[in-house]
Amino acid sequence: MTLAEHFCLQRTLSQKTEGICTMEPANKSEISPNSFLLMGIPGLEHLHIWIGIPFCSMYVVAVVGNVTILAVVRAEQSLHEPMFLFLCMLSVTDLVLSTSTLPRMLCLFWLGAHHIAFEACLAQMFFIHSFTAMESGFFLAMAIDRYVAICEPLRHATILTHSRIAKMGAAVLVRGVAFFSPHPILLKQLPYCRTRIIAHTYCEFMAVVKLACEDIGATKRYSLSVAFMIGSCDCLFIAFSYALILRAVFRLPSREARLKALGTCGSHVCVILVFYSTAGFTFLTHRFGHNVAPQVHIFIANMYLVVPPFLNPIVYGIKTKKIREHVLSSLRVKLS
């Protein structure tokens, strides 16, 4: 018995009132199906329980770490600087991104909760794509902050005022919402007359759109072009800002000054590489990687949603002296 047939049998036994589940396309299309079935990681179903353990651990660290950063920056007046304000925006984005996917994913891995309501699926899809775009935008904003801090240190406070920081954050937010709001709207209008089984651990756009029974070429092109445009533009501007930073750093007179300047950018570069490498792999797999094993593609797709929210607070917490010192001092007070 195949996994898809197992899902059909399971659904027939648990929901007899819904009729018979078949593997053939339904004769009657459904504009808004009541629910989808998330398959998980195909071929690794027997390891779902064990896979869920590191995912849960990373989620706990992501929540605790990002909440800690928000609390520290809010409590410490000296941290109300552009770098830390952008870091707070990134932390909020990470919290929403991880919370919109990980709890539901863990229910699938540990409780076998494969069903997801159609509206919940669309909402999850919107949060994933829009907040991923926001994360990319905040990485760009932080790169701009590092450029101004290193290349224009005397004008840093006058260029990146709180008003401009708020406008940059609002622009990133509006961009993410505006470009990806059409996703759930377009999918809600499509007729679904094929199987309702989504070969994924969450409601990924391409996995859902393939279930429609009409031509989806325009919808797929819109999604891929928007993702490519946002990702490539942000990467291009980040690379350009760091090229200018490197040029300015290597013009500094002393080796100590160069190392100190590069040290302020090290944590940012680390998390950027992790985010864009996993996101880029997922995008290219959708476009060109037809021979990539499904479990490899889905596992990497999970990593790009799980690892950055987990890694960001660790990297910034360890590498940023002010945050590290404030957390350690708070722990000493509580322990004493």
TrEMBL record:
MF GO annotations: G protein-coupled receptor activity; olfactory receptor activity
InterPro entries (alphabetical): GPCR_Rhodpsn, GPCR_Rhodpsn_7TM, Olfact_rcpt, OR51/52/56-like
Gene3D superfamilies assigned: Rhodopsin 7-helix transmembrane proteins
GO CC annotations, alphabetized: plasma membrane
Membrane topology, record value: Multi-pass membrane protein
Primary site of residence: membrane
Keyword set includes Lyase: no
SUPFAM superfamilies tied to this protein: Family A G protein-coupled receptor-like
Key words, A-Z: G-protein coupled receptor, Membrane, Olfaction, Receptor, Sensory transduction, Transducer, Transmembrane, Transmembrane helix
Transmembrane regions: 47-72, 84-102, 122-144, 165-182, 226-249, 261-284, 296-318
Keyword Transmembrane helix: yes
Top-rank taxon: Eukaryota
SMART domains listed in its UniProt record: 7TM_GPCR_Srsx (SM01381)
Subcellular location: Membrane
Role according to the record: Odorant receptor.
The protein, known as: G-protein coupled receptors family 1 profile domain-containing protein
Organism from which the protein derives: Marmota monax
